[in-house]
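Figure 3 (text version): structure tokens given as input.
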């Protein structure tokens, strides 16, 4: 029985955690022995065998090191040495990396070990961190230094924040030398948008695949009829922040009559709840999947005014629940939609956002078309089967 080790910052929590879990479960069904190594702070129950890389206290020390020394991915040294011992003990046939950033793992220690082995390594890029010297998304700063060498990072204060130092040149060099230097590395991009950048990055000479995200269509499906009293607008972020368009939603509230349009925001922080503008319903992140499905299903439109996103599963979840999407033209978000299932407006154009909502109210989109697109393109069993085929092809070449 072949063995698979997946490594991710979360366990069955958030978008990447759920993707990791679903890939692992499908691999199990196809005869693989699956383990997941993960961080400590974002953990939900899992059906897979798991290994916690770092403690919560250790992760907070890693956060502190990143804040002071611009060293996300370079803390957790002892914890990662223990992970290496775990890897040696289970002897995986394939290692699949998801988010290696997130203050729980030392990629230098990990790749110094991996680069001395012949273990096939698959790395799914859910954002841009793995080929930049600091940032998760460079588009918000319109920066292309990552094509040659990062220096004087314009997003030093963005996540992962660095309060004082700019070590982006060192970070870029380490990633180029250690991660891109792995001869057994295969890259997977989750969107065409990201793939375009990766083919210009430090990974341009590696084998690069495109595998879109998928979701559980048995869970995300139409549940409740739309509420006809108002045209209900749903917005979701994890968390809902400025970069996810929070303040654009606030502006939107002033442009749409409250008696005609309802707005609900999911994923707010406690402080945001206290200062929420009148006429907007808000709640913190929900871990209740059935509640989330109900919110999607009874909304008339899902509005995703994100300023930086790779391939948001929220768009897919909304379509699966029969609800059309309006999004900014940014990242891989528009790729998920078709003219029959959503509207794309230019980045930051709140007036166009409001006009699109009004237009959709007058000419509603077909819930059936939304669901059919999700079924045709984003069934997790079909999308994640691409990973199983990739694993099999890699071990057959050893």
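Below: residues designed for each position.
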């Amino acid at each position: 029985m072949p063995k698979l080790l997946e490594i991710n910052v979360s366990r069955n929590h958030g978008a990447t955690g759920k993707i990791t879990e679903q890939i692992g479960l499908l691999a199990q069904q196809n005869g693989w022995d699956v383990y997941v190594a993960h961080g400590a702070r974002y953990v939900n129950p899992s059906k897979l065998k798991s290994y916690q890389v770092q403690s919560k206290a250790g992760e907070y020390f890693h956060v502190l090191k990143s804040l002071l020394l611009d060293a996300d991915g370079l803390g957790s040294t002892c914890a990662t040495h223990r992970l290496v011992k775990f890897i040696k003990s289970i002897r995986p046939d394939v290692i699949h990396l998801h988010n290696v950033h997130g203050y729980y793992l030392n990629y230098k220690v990990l790749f110094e070990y991996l680069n001395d082995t012949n273990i096939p390594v698959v790395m799914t890029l859910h954002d841009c961190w793995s080929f930049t010297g600091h940032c998760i998304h460079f588009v918000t700063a319109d920066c292309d230094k990552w094509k040659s060498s990062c220096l004087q990072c314009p997003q030093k204060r963005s996540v992962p924040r660095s309060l004082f130092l700019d070590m982006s040149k060192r970070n870029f060099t380490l990633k180029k030398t250690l991660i891109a230097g792995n001869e057994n590395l295969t890259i997977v991009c989750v969107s065409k948008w990201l793939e375009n950048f990766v083919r210009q990055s430090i990974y341009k000479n590696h084998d690069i695949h495109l595998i879109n995200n998928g979701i559980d269509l048995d869970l995300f499906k139409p549940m409740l009829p739309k509420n006809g009293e108002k045209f209900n607008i749903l917005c979701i972020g994890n968390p809902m922040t400025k970069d996810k368009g929070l303040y654009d939603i606030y502006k939107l509230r002033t442009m749409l009559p409250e008696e005609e349009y309802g707005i609900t925001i999911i994923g707010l922080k406690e402080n945001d709840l206290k200062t929420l503008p009148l006429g907007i319903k808000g709640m913190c992140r929900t871990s209740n999947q059935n509640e989330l499905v109900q919110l999607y299903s009874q909304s008339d439109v899902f509005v995703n005014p994100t300023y930086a996103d790779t391939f948001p599963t929220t768009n897919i979840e909304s379509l699966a629940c029969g609800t059309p999407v309006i999004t900014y033209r940014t990242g891989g978000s528009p790729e998920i939609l078709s003219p029959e299932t959503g509207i794309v407006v230019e980045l930051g154009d709140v007036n166009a956002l409001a006009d699109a909502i009004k237009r959709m109210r007058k000419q509603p989109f077909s819930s059936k078309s939304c669901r059919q697109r999700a079924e045709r393109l984003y069934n997790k069993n079909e999308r994640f089967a691409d990973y199983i085929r990739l694993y099999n092809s890699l071990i057959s070449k050893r």
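The chain has 13 helices and 13 strands.
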